[in-house]
Amino acid sequence: MQKSFVMRNPSTLVFLAALAMFTILVTVLAEGSGAGVISTSFVKTLGKTLCLALAAVAMDLVWGYAGILSLGHFAFFGLGGYMIGMWLMYERTRGIVEASLAEAQIPPTAQEVVDAIGNQIFGVVGSSEFPIVWSFSDSLAIQLALVVLVPGALAAVFGWLAFRSRVTGVYLSILTQAMTLALALHLFQNDSGLRGNNGLSGLQNLPGMTHVPQATISIWFFWGSALALGLGYLFASWIVFGKFGSVIRGIRDDEARVRFLGYPVETYKLFLFTVTAMIAGIAGALYYPQAGIVNPAEVAPIASIYLAVWVAIGGRGRLYGAVIGAIFVSLVSSWFTGGQVPDVNLGFYTIKWVDWWLIVLGLSFVAVTLFAPKGIGGLVDLWADRKSPDRHGADLGPSEGSLQEKEAVE
Amino acid sequence: MSALLEVSGVSVSFDGFKAINNLSFSIGSAELRAIIGPNGAGKTTFMDIITGKTRPDEGRVVWGDLSRSLLDMSEAKIAQAGIGRKFQKPTVFEDQTVEENLVMALKNKRGPFSALFYKRSADDMTRVGELAEEINLSDRLRFKAGELSHGQKQWLEIGMLLAQDPQLLLVDEPAAGMTPSEREHTTALLVEAAKTCAVVVVEHDMEFVRRLNCRVTVLHEGAVLTEGSLDHVTSNQEVIDVYLGR
Ligand SMILES: Nc1ncnc2c1ncn2[C@@H]1O[C@H](COP(=O)(O)OP(=O)(O)OP(=O)(O)O)[C@@H](O)[C@H]1O
Ligand SMILES: [Mg+2]
């Protein structure tokens, strides 16, 4: 009998333990639970960061393990946010509308209520009609299902078209980016039915929970994010440490060889692309209620590129690397762009980090790619001394990799 | 005797250059066959056609008792039908252990869900052990394939072929870059494999071919020049002119 995969892979256990400890620590120190060391807004930042880490795990599965550099996973993330945002906005607006109509002498008809909600939500884009995409916005259950189904369906259709035609490498990346751009441009339009560039807002307010302070809600979402990350990480480990992981790493390293072993490579890619899109959708659905707003700019291709940068800096092809990259880079990034880092006055020029941060990030990305392809996660190897064997001597045979002098004399 | 694989009248051209020219070939089950021929004769392309990597412009490729055409099957389907292939350049998954490489190759269901829920059964691991024994890598099971020597990689790749439990093995230059003793072991492996399945070996090294002690097909400019025992083909004047004499 085999040991369970968690036991065979202690890194998963270590990660889950660290996540649990972090969650407890933040909870104890948070404003919502009385200690007040960590402000509510920072609890939200941390919760959001965990969601980004989950998206990075999805990205690592698809890129780090299977070699598919998708520049569309943040679009799936955004779509997840839109799906939950529709329900949040609808229900909350309904609460407000009903409260205000309750004052009226004649009780409003159901249709009047719906019209008033429509007016409230779509007034900014000069409309009051509910578009078809909002058909289920009054049902939490359906919108929750759509959080995974919409990104999943988009990924499945797109992936089916792309993988079936054997589009790979840079061309695939460009295609995914085109998909993301098309989606963002569509969402930007007022008649997309999702309020154009206004996006969906007020998402931090939970319908029916108006009496609960944000300090408490922020902790709930923090827990939700930690749980999702924990489960997502566990799921991802289960995928990569088994034979499926072996096959997708094979696909990454030599797709043709995997095909000649009899594996339907395209089916594997499609499966992984779709599943990771769903994970990204879930991460987005937890992120945007903490951010309060989701708009088309979130879906723009640059966001998906960031995702790739995080995974690269953290170390692709190892799950904790993706998490480290996402947490480290996004926190440092918000620190720099939030204006908290003092400007550097060089006398002739003042470096304003708000403007220079992107350049710093870009340079670090290049540096990591060139000099430390294993990323931050590679440090763990140094510590665990997981070195690749050091082979000395010249190759004996006619081609690289043949027996080497020292090995032959052994 | 009905042939296991029957290739007839196959042609392929790349940008007007005929790499395979009206080639016909057949092999029976449990037959060992060597293919020789000068560089660019089309030996690798011939294997590409059988395994579905390259689609021929014309001709038929018929497989097995049911006489199925391989031409409209995907690479993965052809592999599942029982045709295994070793590439000219050794291609094993260097980032994975020898054991993982073998487990991946073992004859099991190939779909994503089967892989997700796959558990290493005792039978499978016994088979992996046997294979490792055969290819001299028993003490290397936990090593990454990338750490193996060139010859060991070639063996691992042959082991992966055997793990698929194929009916036909296509082996492209298995002895390239091997030390003499490694070559001997490789010969033994192939001869052993040919007891249970058909094996086609492409090789330049005449000594190696001689040790295989089997029927030889000579390819030249994309077509069969001659076929027969090694002594028969090596005494053929045309073969001497285009290949041996150089
Ligand atoms: N994809 C391709 N595109 C264009 N030409 C090709 C392609 N594949 C093979 N060729 C050409 O077809 C001819 C046959 O090549 P092939 O690789 O089959 O030869 P070979 O007999 O295996 O030679 P070697 O002994 O060097 O391995 C060569 O001239 C080669 O340049
Ligand atoms: Mg060749």
Task: Explain what the structure shows.
The complex is a heterodimer of chains A (410) and B (246). Chain A has 17 helices and 4 strands. With 410 residues, chain A is an all-alpha fold. Chain A has one domain (14-305). Chain B has 246 residues and is α/β, with parallel strands linked by helices. Chain B has a single domain, classed as P-loop containing nucleotide triphosphate hydrolases (Rossmann fold), CATH 3.40.50.300. Chain B is built from 10 helices and 10 strands. Chain B has helices spanning 43-50, 75-80, 98-105, 112-116, 122-134, 150-163, 180-193, 206-212, 230-234, 237-244, and strands at 5-14, 17-27, 32-36, 58-63, 68-69, 83-86, 168-172, 198-202, 215-220, 223-228. In chain B, a hairpin with a 2-residue loop joins strand 9 (215-220) and strand 10 (223-228). In chain B, helix 5 (122-134) crosses helix 6 (150-163). The mean pLDDT of chain B is 91. The interface between A and B is large, with 38 and 43 residues. The complex binds adenosine-5'-triphosphate (ATP) and magnesium ion.
Which key terms come to mind for this protein?
heterodimer, A: 410 residues, two-stranded antiparallel sheet, two-stranded antiparallel ribbon, 4 strands, disordered C terminus, B: 246 residues, alpha/beta, Rossmann fold, six-stranded mixed β-sheet, 10 strands, 24% strand, binds adenosine-5'-triphosphate, binds magnesium ion
Concise synopsis of the structure shown:
Chain A is mainly α and 410 residues long. Chain A has one domain (14-305).
Secondary-structure blueprint:
The complex is a heterodimer of chains A (410) and B (246).
Chain A: H1 5-8, H2 10-29, H3 40-65, H4 73-101, H5 110-122, H6 140-164, H7 169-188, E1 200-201, H8 214-241, H9 243-253, H10 255-260, H11 265-291, E2 293-294, H12 296-299, H13 301-314, H14 319-337, E3 344-345, E4 350-351, H15 353-371, H16 378-384, H17 405-409
Antiparallel strand pairs in A: 1-2, 3-4
Helix pairs in contact in A: 2-8, 3-8, 3-11, 3-13, 3-14, 4-5, 4-6, 4-11, 6-11, 8-11, 13-14, 14-15
Chain B: E1 5-14, E2 17-27, E3 32-36, H1 43-50, E4 58-63, E5 68-69, H2 75-80, E6 83-86, H3 98-105, H4 112-116, H5 122-134, H6 150-163, E7 168-172, H7 180-193, E8 198-202, H8 206-212, E9 215-220, E10 223-228, H9 230-234, H10 237-244
Parallel strand pairs in B: 3-8, 3-9, 6-7, 7-8
Antiparallel strand pairs in B: 1-2, 1-4, 4-5, 9-10
Helix pairs in contact in B: 3-6, 5-6, 6-7
Bound molecules: adenosine-5'-triphosphate and magnesium ion.
